[in-house]
């Protein structure tokens, strides 16, 4: 009689554990040790067609030997960008916090979904503790919130909740029963505001862009002007988005003045503090967000400046009446049964538009437990100090020119090669200067020495935007950064 295959496990647990041990060793050596080693490359650059051949990405009908799979693991790490490297300055996130990493590993291992207490009891309780702490830093004694898959969705949630709060019937009747809604945001806002207006059926034509001053901050008087203009055109001004830490310049809108305008016109006041929110942890720098306690909602990404690792984005509400639940709730009876044996108020998953939801609170909680609020404050203050150091060094060096004096930790500057120095009056000066940053970026990536972003902004041609959030960065790394820019661009 043939043996019943269902009588035995289909996985070899001993082999699986051995694979995990070897894979974790590869992760520790290749991703953690080498990934944070300043003598290693930030990236091992390859052209797409070459990389496809190296990686052997083809999926086949038969499985491969364990050692071959482990080699795939090594290759994946080797040819990926090391965002934890001390000379990675390319994004608004970088670095590697070991406690947050362990939190991510535990989350992935437990593989649960944070929608009900029955399936995620520890994390449901933990999420509320973390969200409460973030709300307290904003200045709210109560409120609500949820972790979202990124700051963009947090901003979209804010827009949706604001619309529901103003027009609760729209959840059933849809956009057909609504007046023409108007959204207001600065010219330097994150592009997720446009995405949100399009996604929610409001329409990008109904976004009124508010002027900014020379530092990229929203001008409250122009906000008032744009709101009055929208009213005269028959629109309903329902949502104002202010930004704390714009993506390029790192500007902070004047929140208190914006709040005054919102109160006069009855508009929902949302603050996109995805980037700049972590300055609230610093007693020296939290003044940048003065007035944020008057906001109706806030987006805040600890995965950026605090280094919790992707993704960790909080959508926070001052409202404590259950507005978030009413706006998004669908009451699925197979998941959110009302006759459970415990208090179903702990089943928080219906506050989101998601069903399955990753656990994003553990990595932040574990990191906070290990470092304390004081440790996180030092991390924030260190980033500011490094930006000030680098700004002063740039002023001392010929060929380096600040775009703007930094207010936050975004350091924006041009490098002017020898061929363009003293030629500011030439007709093609700015056109030629705009080609310098892309050329230097190409060279540094192919060399693997470091990574930094660049972009144009309005009438300003391409310039570098350097950001330091990684605590393992030293002054030597920043000196190297400036020296390398010179080395790579001196002959342009």
Automatic annotation (TrEMBL):
Gene3D superfamilies, per database record: 3.90.1150.170, Type I PLP-dependent aspartate aminotransferase-like (Major domain)
PROSITE patterns in alphabetical order: DDC_GAD_HDC_YDC
GO biological process: carboxylic acid metabolic process; taurine biosynthetic process
UniProt KW keywords: Decarboxylase, Lyase, Pyridoxal phosphate
Coiled-coil intervals: none
Short name of any one Pfam family annotated for the protein: Pyridoxal_deC
Domain of life: Eukaryota
Any one GO MF annotation of this record: sulfinoalanine decarboxylase activity
Residues with the N6-(pyridoxal phosphate)lysine modification: 304
SUPFAM superfamilies listed in its UniProt record: PLP-dependent transferases (SSF53383)
PANTHER family assigned to the protein according to its UniProt record, in alphabetical order: CYSTEINE SULFINIC ACID DECARBOXYLASE, GLUTAMATE DECARBOXYLASE-RELATED
Assembly mode: Homodimer.
Family: Belongs to the group II decarboxylase family.
Protein name: Cysteine sulfinic acid decarboxylase
Species the sequence originates in: Gopherus evgoodei
